[in-house]
Amino acid sequence: MAxxxxxxxxxxxxxxxxxxxxxxxxxxxxxxxxANYLPHxxxxxxxxxxxxxVFEEKAREPLSIYTEKKIQGPFALITFKQETSLLxxxxxxxxxxxxxxxxxxxxxxxxxHHDHVLVPYESREAALTSLKKxxx
Length: 136
Fold this sequence. Notes:
Helix content: 25-40%
Number of strands: 7
CATH class: Alpha Beta
Distance between the termini: 13 Å
Number of domains: 1
Radius of gyration: 16 Å
Order of helices and strands: HEEHEEHEHEEH
CATH superfamily: VC0802-like
CATH architecture: 2-Layer Sandwich
């Protein structure tokens, strides 16, 4: 492992967000309805099939009227405190591998400043422990 990757892993500082999170898919035609819940939306990703939205539990029931698909969750959200870049080679592979070794499914997504991971809510503590081991 390269020294710069090792140093980045040591500085990641994974933080477990409070609460439960959910993921759903919505048509682009529902964008205005979704906008009413923007304070509770963590991420919107545009895919060919529609908008994938990650949101807080508080918005689950009201957002369910905007989708025909089943909303999935609950999940826990882990955010890495250390800023990362899309140019950091191997970082996603390392924390995905750590969760895989612990048999914890994960959905990884990156914002401009930080990487984020959704894990099953019941696995949140085990996931956090696995990710903190990368800092050693």
